[in-house]
Amino acid sequence: MATDWKQVLFDFWDMIKKNNDAGWKYGVDSTGWRKESHVPYIGDYHPMHVMNLYYPENWDASQGKLPTIIYIHGGGWLYGCVDDSERYLGWLAAQGYAVMAMNYRLLQETDLQGLVSDIFTAMRWLDAYGPARGFDLEKVLVTGDSAGGHLTLLTACIRESKQLQQIYNVAPFGFSLNALAVSCPCVETDSLYINGEQGTEQGDGTAQAYRDLMLGEDGEDAPWRDYMSYSQASKGLNLPPLFLIGSESESLYAQSQFLIRHVAQTGQEFESLVWKKEDGPHLLHVFNISYWEWKESLESNQRMLDFFKKHC
After folding, report:
1. pLDDT tens by residue, 272-285
2. How far apart are CA 80 and CA 151, in angstroms?
């Protein structure tokens, strides 16, 4: 009987969810922030069509608008929600930012076009209603980790390309992006060897399953077939400055290495903070999100904010 590699992916991410849920109670809460929780950006009552808005605890509208951070969560395109990174997002808000983080439908329910459509709809909601809620849309950072790093970069590409807007069938949002930041990103969708090594049955099987899920019912006829990876979507585009947080100890470091080589070739303005193996084996995948309070996380996240300030 042939292995159902899609189900292998579903089971893998279910296991990750259970492990993360069990560990949530041991996390360290951040302070100095407040939020508006599960604000719908589409009025269809879908649980994934909501966002959280974070602010400094004592901020009010009379103090003026705040620089904007937009966060796109990771989770292998198959797991995650806005609440999973709340301690990190709250810490960002406490530094003096208005933060928006959206849910989006996952690949169990839709394809890559559907994910992108949800993100762009949330962006257009922020465009329409964010300024009245304190978001300064002349100072915008978009950031994401892991699969959210891929979606961050893809969003920036589509924002700058009418051709990609047509391919992904999305209407653009009006505000510009001052900077991008990614943490341990998965940027190349043709190299998603997350559940096994390339050349092995599991590695090749799950990588193909990812491609099939992203293409959806249209399969290889999907218009976005050749525009899913950052290297494909970014060709010829003038993109915002990019900051990378990475670690040699993390499981998908090859993806960060690819991104570093790619931006060096294209000339996109770029800075990185890559932690070395000798800095410690604890600096695993998206450590700066999961453990915001660690010394290395605070340094990484502050460097990201400094990069954003420089490009405002």
Report:
1. 999 999 999 999 99
2. 14
> With 0-12 CB in 10 A as exposed, 13-18 as middle and 19+ as buried, what is 61?
exposed
Tell me how far apart the alpha carbons of residues 101 and 53 are, in angstroms, rounded to a whole number: 7
* Lookup: tokens for 19: 């492990």
Q: Is 265 helix (H, G, I), strand (E, B) or coil?
A: helix
pTM, 2 dp: 0.98
pLDDT grade, residue 1 (50/70/90)? confident
Between helix 112-129 and helix 147-159 the angle, nearest 10°, is 70
First to last CA, the chain: 56
Check whether 87 has a pLDDT greater than 90. Answer: yes
φ, ψ for residue 274 (rounded to 5)? Answer: -110, 115
What's the angle, vertex CA 72, arms to CA 158 and CA 75, rounded to 5?
115
Q: Tell me the backbone φ, ψ of residue 275, rounded to 5 degrees.
A: -80, 140
Q: How many angstroms separate the CA atoms of 143 and 71, rounded?
A: 5
CA–CA separation, 216 and 108 (whole Å): 10
What number is the average pLDDT over the span 263-291?
A: 97
Residue 103: how many CB atoms within 10 A of its CB?
A: 22
Q: How many CB atoms lie within 10 A of CB 176?
A: 12
Render pLDDT for 116-142 as a digit per residue (tens, 0 to 9).
999 999 999 999 999 999 999 999 999
User: Considering the chain, what is the average pLDDT of its residues?
Assistant: 97
* Burial track 226-265 (b if 16+ CB lie within 10 A, e otherwise): ebbbbbbbbeebebbbbbbbbbebbebbebbebbeebbee
Residue spans of the domains in the chain: they are 5-310
CATH architecture of the domain with range 5-310: 3-Layer(aba) Sandwich (3.40)
- Helix H or strand E segment including 168: helix 162-168
